[in-house]
Amino acid sequence: MMDPIPCHFYEDGQRKNGTLQLEENHLVFQTGRFKDKTKVPYQMIKAAQQDDQQRLISQIDIITKSFKKFTLDVSPGPLGTILTRVNGRSKAASLRELPAFKTNERVSVEEWDEFTLATEYAMMKVPNNEWKITDLNKNFELCSTYPKVLAVPTTATDFIIKGSAKFRSRQRLPILTYLHGNGGSIVRCAQPMAGANNRSEMDEKLLELCVDTSRSRSNGLIVDTRPMINAMANRAQGKGYENVEHYQKCSFEFHGIENIHVMRKSLESLEQKGWLSSDWLKHIYAVLDSVEKTQISRGRGGRGGQK
């Protein structure tokens, strides 16, 4: 561990006098009479870069992944050490270099069993009269990207469950994600392999059975979180979205949330001066609006099925 380096740094626009400590897993900024500390894990640092201007005091910008920025004024002596240490530690060459793998703390295997999906379902009082646990995916043969434990309507036969899986992208059939005390539930699945006019009676039946679990007997809401144009493009590739003429007791909505690539690009643009044009606020609104609409449907005891 190096000795503390005297520096000035700017946090939230305020200049502070203090020291910078390069610890094993953190940067530590220390200020004031009471030695207030701000710790920044190296893995939370996106970049550390030197101001190009030539001057007696060197300036370093440390930009974090949470959009916090520290600007340091340091003497030229420790400049290279700071940049090398910070940039080196913030970009681990392998998982084994991360702090979590360097701890000597002994952890019992049982601690990792604290979360199980079966326990989560039990907290929602599943299984019950409407929902059951199926072991069809115990060897990940039904859906390789789903957990072993799946909750489906009690009236759904193995034939219906398997038929639905065949009709869904990557076999991600409708399964219970959340069950409220009023009987309203949220069921998740992937897009159907509908194409231009394909259909599956088994998939249609499974969603109908999901709707029938509702105590209020209200219609289910199928939420496609994508923009409609994206779903239409996937339809041309043999995928697509549900035709509500075939899905009894269901209504359908697109919620217009962009894909992960658009979201990531927008997030990166937040750091630029023209951040408002990044559309980040529009994306956040779309997500929150989708959550609200789904929650309102669930609150009525209806089905909020999401893709």
UniProtKB/TrEMBL annotation:
It comes from the Eukaryota. One of its GO terms (cellular component) is cytoplasm. Substrate binds at residues 259-260. PROSITE patterns: PPASE_MYOTUBULARIN. Residues 111-307 form the Myotubularin phosphatase domain. GO terms for molecular function: phosphatidylinositol-3,5-bisphosphate phosphatase activity; phosphatidylinositol-3-phosphate phosphatase activity. One of its GO terms (biological process) is phosphatidylinositol dephosphorylation. InterPro entries: Myotubularin (IPR030564), Myotubularin-like_Pase_dom (IPR010569), PH-like_dom_sf (IPR011993), Prot-tyrosine_phosphatase-like (IPR029021). Belongs to the protein-tyrosine phosphatase family. Non-receptor class myotubularin subfamily. This is Myotubularin phosphatase domain-containing protein. It comes from Oikopleura dioica (Tunicate).
